[in-house]
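User: Some background: our group keeps a shared notebook of sequences we're curious about, and every so often someone picks one and asks for a predicted structure to add to the entry. Today it's my turn. The entry only has the sequence so far, pasted here. Could you supply the structure so I can complete it?
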Amino acid sequence: MINKNNSKGFTLIETMVSLIIVGLAMMAINTQMNRFFINSSYLEKKVLASWIASNSMAELTSSNTWPAIGVRTNEIEFSNRLWIIETEVSNSQIDQLRRIDISIYEIDDRDKSIHVLTSLIEPPIPLGVSEYSWLSNYCIAGSGPGCSTR
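Assistant: Of course. Here's the predicted structure to add to the notebook entry:
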């Protein structure tokens, strides 16, 4: 005969409650892992797109020609992926500067840009002119070789 007072172990209710708690914990962990992987994929795309935009801007600013006003689109392969670079050049409020907006898209998702880089650039230095020749004519707060004396 079995004495009920001396029996050891869990009842069915206790086992079911513990399984429900473990199941809920596993679902929460799974949800967080999915969010982590989605966010890390997005951050990877964002970083790669920012590198592409920075490289494109460096090419434009180091060029010997001033970019023409308008919109240009090209495709490149970077990090074993295809990307679309959309470069929009427009006039700025300052005559000697042009505004450049570089938008980066994935090849299969043209509706939403991943990264946009905006900058103002000046015209390139004419051939035969020293890069620092403008320093000989500076005038700051009324002093310098470029200031007129009265």
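Suggested note for the entry: The radius of gyration is 31 Å. Residues 12-61 form the longest helix (50 residues).
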